[in-house]
Amino acid sequence: MTIRDVRQASASAGATQQATRTVFFIAGMGMAAWAPLVPYAKDRAQLTDGSLGTLLLFLGLGSLIAMPLTGMLVGRFGCRSIIALGSAFIVLALPLLATLDTPLLLSLSLMMFGAAIGLVDVAINIQAVEVEKASGRAMMSGFHGFFSVGGIVGAGSVSAALALGLSPVQAVALVAVVLMALFGLCQRHLLSQRLHQQGAPLFVLPQAWVLFLGGLCFILFLTEGSILDWGALFLTQLRGLPHSHAGLGYALFSVAMTLGRLTGDRIVRLCGRTATLCCGTLCAAGGLLLAVSVPSATMTLVGFVLVGLGASNAVPIMFSAAGNQRVMPVNLAISSMTTIGYAGILAGPALIGFISQGYGLAAAFSVIAVLLLIVAASARLITR
Fold this sequence. Notes:
Elements: H1 3-32, H2 38-45, H3 49-77, H4 79-99, H5 103-135, H6 140-163, H7 168-186, H8 208-238, H9 248-262, H10 264-271, H11 273-293, H12 297-311, H13 314-324, H14 330-359, H15 361-377, H16 379-382
């Protein structure tokens, strides 16, 4: 191979890595753009809090339907085609969510939106696993960091547009234009080859090892969902924080997680995956225990920051582990693991609420801390 060939190969690999970061950003931005639209949708459809909660379940339902199928689709058509399909449906769904005013149509649009997110989520992680393996170095945390940055930009840009007087449909139209432009720039560098090998099954039942990884992902997503759904209530009811500051806990958690992921690849290279996963989940567990054991709003916020920093690189390491296992095709393993893990976000509010009703919210957070210790104890087994 000549020096020119080496340079071309290096440039091609660099372009593929950058394209992967871009599609993670696209996924985060597209998903988060919906959050500022929720109050407007509630008002247009004249929904109660209870009916809104029921409506939002359709988003999760759409994702849970699409995620198990995405591994098969990627195996048959490649990552690029499935990411393009999911991104197109996200762009299509956002204006519908900004304009429809009946519960039925909103629920159908949310299901489509959730399915699109599910398609993209699984496909980009399959892409990321393949790119990381080709590079020979840790890259997964950085990819997920761009998803977090995209989420901040998506929610922030729509909120800013609404604050400036734009209508919801105008705000999401701007987001849609940005998403399409970004995808147009990066799509030719996404992986297009089929992952399905001749004679191999398009679908296999999840093997025990993948189910185990999925269960650990369930715990990690449950942890994130608990801060999202119950962190504000914990701060206001148990720590006396004013309602106007209730969102500060999740905001600090999100910033800490984003910073942790953007620096996570360097940490993994320096310390190794085993130490990063073990120490990180111990840090997250310690953060939750700090939040519940010290009756101070300040220390609770510090605890939430520790949870964000500690948990930031755990899920990326799980995806790397799914990519390195040999008991299932990689695309099917990631599809299965993501579906099981995502159920943690959906089941989180109900599970935490059930424990909280019987024993209190502090006890519910303590249970999650104990579950995180299981992840820490499994670190060496996962990263072998």
